Amino acid sequence: MARCRLLLFLAALSSIFGLLHASAGDADPIYSACVDQCEKTGCVGDECSQHCNFTSGGIPVDGPWYLQEPLYLRWKQWDCLSDCRYHCMIAREEGRQKLGLQPIKYHRKWPFQRVYGIQEPVSVAFSVLNLAIQFHGWVSFFILVNYNLPFSPKKKPYYEYTGLWHIYAILSMNSWIWSAVSHSRDVELTEKLDYSSVVAFIGYSLLVAILRAFNVRDEASRVMIAAPIVAFVTTHILYLNFYQLNYGLNIKVCVAMTMLQFILWVVWAGFT
């Protein structure tokens, strides 16, 4: 009997912690009931989801094979559950707005409106804009180093940090690409790729800040400095992808690395 009570207590405790980590919208009983009802009927008010007539593999529940979902819809992984969550979120927020309540997050995201199947079009647009700016900066740097500045006798650029900044630009553009993809359709794969690319970019930015701030030019010294940073960043990325996608921990790690490199750049700017 005591063991049963202990198990019930642990189960209740785990459910409480689960609610603490969930978004406010997820815990809303009206929203939850709406999603459950939608999965059974396929409709939220006048809005009905065609995806609720298909299995998770895109095969129609009732109907011939040629009524399968288009490939582009299956690629975006819009399914019955995601459609129900979306329509219930819209319906619930309309109700909250009438009551004068502020918007709340659902599944860690603020309410959004789809446009042509794109989940967060404004965020996608800003990500693409940032990507274009980074690409323009990279091309400008490439032209400056290779065409406007003289070369050393070894036919290499005099600027010794050229290679580091090229890698920096590539990682930066990669992070904005996956940011656009993730905001277009947020599923587990795109979310992990987005987080991983950002962590890799911030980690490399910290490495560049250390090398540039302390004017490290010797290759052996660069390797010694890079090794622990690369090991830490790689371990963190593996942790996020294969153990637990811990959002709180990831934010702390990224903020810590960002603040550290910010301090390094401030010190470097103040003494050079």
Automatic annotation (TrEMBL):
How is this protein situated with respect to the membrane? Multi-pass membrane protein
Q: Does the keyword Transit peptide apply?
A: no
Q: Name any GO cellular component annotation.
A: endoplasmic reticulum membrane
Q: What is its main location?
A: Golgi
Keyword terms, alphabetized: Golgi apparatus, GPI-anchor biosynthesis, Membrane, Signal, Transmembrane, Transmembrane helix
Q: Which domain of life is it from?
A: Eukaryota
The residues the entry assigns to the signal sequence are: 1-22
Q: Which GO terms describe its molecular function?
A: hydrolase activity, acting on ester bonds
- What InterPro entries has UniProt attached to this entry? Per1-like
Pfam families for the chain: Per1
Query: Which biological process terms from the Gene Ontology are attached to this UniProt entry?
Result: GPI anchor biosynthetic process
What does the UniProt entry say about where the protein is found?
Golgi apparatus membrane
Q: Does the keyword Ribonucleoprotein apply?
A: no
Membrane-spanning regions, if any?
124-149, 161-181, 193-211, 223-243, 249-271
The entry's function note states: Involved in the lipid remodeling steps of GPI-anchor maturation.
Q: Which family does it belong to?
A: Belongs to the PGAP3 family.
PANTHER family on file: PER1-RELATED (PTHR13148), POST-GPI ATTACHMENT TO PROTEINS FACTOR 3 (PTHR13148:SF9)
- For this entry, the protein name equals Post-GPI attachment to proteins factor 3
Q: Which organism is it from?
A: Solanum chacoense (Chaco potato)
